[in-house]
Amino acid sequence: MIHTKNLTKKYSRTTALQNINVAFERGESIALIGPNGSGKTTLIKSILGLVIPTEGNIFFNGKSILGEWKYRNEIGYMPQISRFPENMNVHQLLKLMRDVRKDEHHKLDEDLIHAFKIENILNKTMGSLSGGTRQKVSACIAFLFSPQVLILDEPTAGLDPLSNEKLKEKIDKEKQKGKLILITSHVLSDLDDVVSQVVYLQDGKLMFHKTVEELEDFTGEQKLNRIIASMMNTPELINEHL
Amino acid sequence: MSKIIKYIIIDLLRNKIVIGYTIFLLILSASIFNLGADSSKGILSLLNIVLIFVPLVSIIFSTIYLYNSSEFIELMLTQPLKRKTILLSEFAGVSSALLLGVFIGVGIPVIVFDGSNAGWWLIIAALFLTIIFVALAFWASVATRDKSKGIGISILLWFYFALIYDGLVLFILFSFSDYPLEKPMLAMCALNPIDLARIAILLKLDVSALMGYTGAVFQQFFGSSEGVLFVVCALIIWAVLPCWRAFTLFNKKDM
Amino acid sequence: MRTFFIILFLIFADISFASVIHVGKNEAYNSIHAALQKANTGDTIFINEGIYAEGEIKITKSVKLIGKNFPVIDGRNKSQVISVYVNHVLIEGFKIINGGYSSVYDWAGIKLVQCDSCIIRNNILINNNFGIYLQASANCIIANNKISSNNPDELLSGNAIHCWKSSYITIKNNDVSGHRDGIYFEFVINSLIQNNYSHNNVRYGLHFMFSHNNSFIKNIFQKNPSGIAVMYSHGVTMLYNRFEQNWGSAAYGILMKDISDSRVQKNIFRNNTVAIHMEGSARMLVENNEFISNGWALEVQASCNDNIFKHNNFESNSFDVGTNGTMQLNTFTENYWDKYEGYDLNRDGIGDVPYRPVSMYSMVIEQSPPAVMLFRSFLVGILDKTEKVLPAVIPEGLKDDKPLMKKIPL
Predict the structure, then answer these.
(1) What residues are paired with A17 via a beta bridge?
(2) For C16-225, CATH number?
């Protein structure tokens, strides 16, 4: 559904992504992991068109996304840090999003709005919300238009355990519907239940892209965070072995 | 696109700075016309406000506003929208809010109290300078990622057009005082929208003829319909050029 | 005694033998030429309504020519229309049109050559090369004439009222326009120019040189492309005149070159590029005038000395005083300057700090005229303010030590 070809992003001094070739398909739930500064967010932003690749290309359903915008109809995005216009209230924000993405094909998915009880804070301005609440609003928006692809950058950071659980349920539900889900997170245990594949980046390079089963076989560990931890020590070895 | 513009305009019309700017201009214009009996004197007093204050507020406010709406822009960029649409909406929103402020604050008092040819030119100049300096602000803030750097560039741009450029012109005039400089002067004033606006207004005021031979050259040129066309075209270019630059930079910008 | 009787006799003879001649379709004479041939000195010739195109009419007898209902005398662009070579001629009530143009002679609508005591009044002159031309004449009166032309060419056009080498002339209540110069004097002395309206001429509204002791009173000079130029004269009196809207690259309310011992009082200068430009002038008294909305109110070149500028009102002028040098030998005192920003602590109506009417920027323009492009710019405003605080460029001596706080009622 989404695949990158020789994707490279260079900033003036650093190389954020180097020759990345990955393919994500429908029904997959992928964890993007790697240490800080490994290029996870840059990869996501490239897919969203926020970052323009220096070299290479990204294809969405076989079509290049460079200079394109319509494909974002199929993407719901929840950023790492949710930043919204401060003096807009929740109601206005939701209305704005609906206006912007008005599309007859999509049914509005208000599950999370109900789950997070967003109805109660409709009149509060974005500036007055706590970081966690803002994340909730952000999640609601990402899921609102039932997109085919969900890109969630550190979705669980800042959420209380209860909300965390609700969000995970929702992700699982969407996965069942055959949607593509891309998640970055470093709180690994949170991802255990929902992740089917792991993409590991380091220093802008793709270290590996494997299914969870493959990794479990190799490491003998069951818990995802254990798997990752053991791989982080010897990522090169893993590539050799698999 | 119209939806986004609507949101931006509603946001800006509630903005305290825009409201304050409008009221300040209105009070200033009204009191200038009420104090002096001679309305052409009133136009002259307003001239400096239009030439200095309006560009300053336009460029600084737009720069800060654009940096402050980076969240909004980022949010919009993740939606199925063209980059061009987003920036164009911002531009249309900011410039129409400021244009409205200038029109209420300067335009209406001038129409009510003066209504002369020079008065209309003053309004046209104020509106053009607003758009031009909003465009410059967009260019500056798209080109720089850092907010304080962007604001710094904006202030410098304003300072350059309001003051430094004229200083350079004066320097050139004295350095080449042995040469006929009337024609180069025409070109030189086209290179600064503030100068262009000032001369267009002055020539509509009676003071124009004081200008001796050079003034006559100016009068002859700017007084003709070709001259008016030249001024308007130059001002349009001044608005379009930085805008176009901002758009090309924005299309390639990483968020 | 004998002389007295002779004079008495002559006077009586004049009265007793003077007869009246009528010219017109149904009259004894149908041409002016024929009537003039028959006329005797002192006769009055009445001319009926009609068009008379008889070539140049030369008057060589002292007669009175009076038109009824403005008979038209047409020069058909071929010749001078009327010329007078004797004294005591009256020409009144004619419409004199289409005087010819000659590159050799100054042809006029009415030309007086070496005449004394002639009166030209209530005529309408249209499209003549020169209008009324006085050559070496004296004691003549030119009154209530309306003289206009529409020749836009400065070289081909003549002056409306042209006086050369004349004296004791009175020019009153004329309306002159469209000629090269409205009123032109060369070597004219002791004359009075009053209540005339000189406007929209091709060059100057009033132009004189080498003409001393003349008085210009209550005239209006308007919209003349070059304004007014007066040169090389002394004893000029200018009172209650209005100099208005003389706009243009070389237009002056008055340009004074080498004028001395003269008075300019109670005049109004409004909307002129330069209200008064003075060079080489001395001992002038400029008093009680109003300078309103001019580009420059005064341009006093460094070649002027001992002039006094007193009790004038300066209002809404772009520049009050301009000059080209740092020497200053003139006196400015007790004027009202609307740009004065001083204070009056002792409340005597006189500002406590002197006013410097020369702005730095006017000095800059004087040196580099294209700098006018920066007029009213932010930069120039700052420069002027700085100069006011720390004078460096403007002439130290050019100041009004007693600037008035209030406008002088005039």
Answers:
(1) A9
(2) 2.160.20.10
Joined tokens for residue A209: 């892209």
Given CB atoms, is B204 within the 8 Å cutoff of chain C?
Answer: no
Give yes or no for a contact between B26 and B105, defined as CB atoms under 8 angstroms apart: yes
Answer for the pair C203, C181: CB distance below 8 angstroms, yes or no: yes
Instruction: Please state, in angstroms and rounded to a whole number, the distance separating the CA atoms of residues B102 and A228.
Output: 61
Q: Binning pLDDT at 50, 70 and 90, where does residue B53 land?
A: very high
Report the pLDDT value the prediction gives residue C288, as an integer from 0 to 100: 96
What string of H, E and C letters represents the secondary structure of B51-77?
HHHHHHHHHHHHHHHHHHCHHHHHHHH
Q: What distances in angstroms separate CA C338 from CA C317, C318, C331, one per listed residue?
A: 9, 11, 19
- The sign of the torsion formed by the CA atoms of C216, C218, C219, C220 equals positive
**Which two tokens mark A231?**
């791989």
- Euclidean distance between CA atoms A185 and B29, whole angstroms: 58
What pLDDT, in 10s, does the model give residues A132-169?
Answer: 899 999 999 999 988 899 999 888 888 888 888 888 88
Find out whether B1 and B88 touch, Cβ atoms under 8 Å: yes
pLDDT in tens, A6-23: 999 988 888 888 889 999
Nearest to A181 by CA among A61, A17, A24: A24
Alpha helices (H) in chain A, listed in sequence order: 40-48, 90-100, 111-115, 131-144, 161-176, 212-219, 224-233, 235-241
Looking at the DSSP bridge assignments, the partners of residue C52 are: C73
> Mutation test of the interface with chain B: which of A96, A102, A103, choosing the one with the most B Cβ atoms within 10 A?
A96
In the predicted model, is pLDDT for residue C194 greater than 70? yes
Rounded to two decimals, the pTM is 0.78
Could you give all domains of chain A from N- to C-terminal order, each with its CATH number? 2-241 (3.40.50.300)
Write out pLDDT tens, residues C243-277.
998 877 678 899 999 999 999 999 999 988 889 99
Higher per-residue pLDDT: B233 or C327 = B233
Report CA-CA distances (Å) from C170 to B208, C129, C160.
Answer: 38, 22, 15
Asked if C14 and C42 count as a contact pair (C-beta separation under 8 A), the reply is yes
Per-residue confidence band for A237, with pLDDT thresholds at 50, 70 and 90: low
Query: Residue A200 in contact with residue A33, Cβ under 8 Å?
Result: yes
Q: Tell me the residue type at C84.
A: V
Residue A121, chain B, CB below 8 Å: the answer is: no
Domain limits, chain C: 16-225
Report residue B199 as tokens: 């001369």
The subunits that touch chain A, with at least 3 C-beta pairs less than 8 Å apart, are B
Please give the Cα distance from A87 to A69 (Å, whole number).
27
Burial (Cβ within 10 Å: 0-12, 13-18, ≥19) of residue B132: buried
Q: Which of residues 229-288 of C touch B (CB under 8 A)?
A: 247-251, 271, 273-274
**Which residues contact residue C88 at a Cβ distance below 8 angstroms, ignoring those fewer than 6 apart?**
C62, C116, C117, C118
B18-41 per-position pLDDT tens digit: 999 999 999 999 888 887 666 777
| CA dist., res. C188 & res. C210, Å (int) | 7
C294 is written with which tokens?
């001019």
Closest residue in B to C246 (Cα) is: B209
C-alpha distances in Å from residue C379, one per residue of B59, B169, B185, C227: 19, 11, 16, 32
Q: Quote the tokens at residue C299.
A: 């341009």
Least CB–CB distance from B209: residue in C295, C319, C367: C295
Question: Which of the given ranges, B74-78, B198-202, C115-119, has the highest pLDDT on average?
Answer: C115-119
CB C295 to CB B210 under 8 A?
yes
DSSP 3-state of C173: coil
B51 closest CB neighbour out of C369, C378, C382:
C378
